[in-house]
Amino acid sequence: MAELKFKVSGEIKEEMKKHSDIGWSKVLEKAVRYELEERSKRELILQACNKILENSKLTEKDALKLGDEVKEAVWKRHQAEGW
Fold this sequence. Notes:
Layout: H1 10-18, H2 24-53, H3 60-80
């Protein structure tokens, strides 16, 4: 098994010392595994979006215009609801 070093603030280090019964290596391993899985999911979603949009004729200008229209519509809806 590989060994890693990491840095934490002094405040966190002190809190970790108070809870020495916790297996911090396992906690960190789970956190790293979770982050890697989330990144993989985002990459798969991005690949799927790219595949869906690969033949799109929508220009950047068109996309910006649509975005502005959506923002305007949402703003008007919020105003109507008293936000």
